[in-house]
Prior knowledge:
The chain is α/β, with parallel strands linked by helices. The chain has 14 helices and 16 strands. The chain has 2 domains: 290 residues, Rossmann fold, CATH 3.40.50.11440; 54 residues, Alpha-Beta Plaits (2-Layer Sandwich), CATH 3.30.70. The strands form 5 sheets. The protein has an 8-stranded mixed sheet, sandwiched between helices. A two-stranded antiparallel ribbon has the order 5-6. The structure holds iron/sulfur cluster (2 copies).
Amino acid sequence: MASTVWFTDLSSRPGNSLLDKTAALLRAAGIRKHVSPGDLTAVKLHFGEKGNTAFLRPIYLRKVVEEVAAAGGKPFLTDTNTLYIGGRSNAVDHLTTAITNGFAYAVAGAPVVIADGLRGESAVRVPVPGRFFREVSIGAEIARADAMIVATHFKGHEISGFGGALKNLGMGCASRSGKLAQHSTVAPTVAQTGCTGCGTCVAHCPAGAIALRDAKAFISPGVCIGCADCIVVCPEGAVRVNWNEASPLVQGKMVEHALGAVSGKKSPPLCLSFVTQVSPFCDCYGSNDLPIAPDVGILASADPVALDQACADLVIRAAGKDPFRERHPGVDWTVQLSCAEELGLGTRSYRLETL
Length: 355
Ligand code: SF4
Ligand code: SF4
């Protein structure tokens, strides 16, 4: 059976601004079926890397926050720490970046809670019936939230072709170890030239997988449990991820994490996607290139698979070509949709309801 995807274009007039239309979209999509009075509600988004300007504008999040509050929920804005070392790899840097990019309480109307804690070690293992995983590691405060709204900037992505709701759920809700499990099949390695032999990683490794030899750190791959802590605690940035997993496998693993992220909630998350400033790459980059498609509009659905399919279809129609395949020719973005459909996360068939 087809899922309903709600859509509004970007036309507006006095008394019916894009903020008003965002609120109307959430109400049409049935936000009160997804958020109940008293629910601690995770509003999952990407705060944008420092220097990026394509991420969702905070004033739209304020509207989401107001609608969650109107439904009786207690909203908080959230994301997980990154696997790579950057402006969002621990909670202190992440909060600072979020506030720098405008996600202060005074603007968004809700607090920011980094879902996997100070160093990305706060996670919950969630069972999933996956092809790759029997359980996945999800940021604790997302897993523990009563309800969730998934607010996504729909754009291109170098590994998955596009980054939509499924990516926001799968990669975005995974803890650091969950992200490592999606991107790599082998243990991190230490770049010997960068290592000063300080021993910080040795002290932090929960598996005792790291040893110092001649004042350089070495990781035993057979002992490593893939927690990824060493990557973020190294003050020299000398511990490197082996980004060795191919796109179709990352997409398959990503949607198994997406299933883990939505599991255990009283109601499935309501997903809201902004198909605007469709940049070629992820908002994790510290810059964003020219958009690869015209702005399309704002969409909402309880079905992340249908939502991503509809966003992709509308982008292709507006661009007159598939800009994701053109920009990332080696990537088949349909893999994430078909794998998610197989897992029961939703359906690729949808009915577009226009507001
Ligand atoms: S924390 Fe970094 S610099 Fe220190 S020993 Fe480990 S790899 Fe080397
Ligand atoms: S990933 Fe975790 S278990 Fe593996 S070496 Fe690094 S700190 Fe140790």
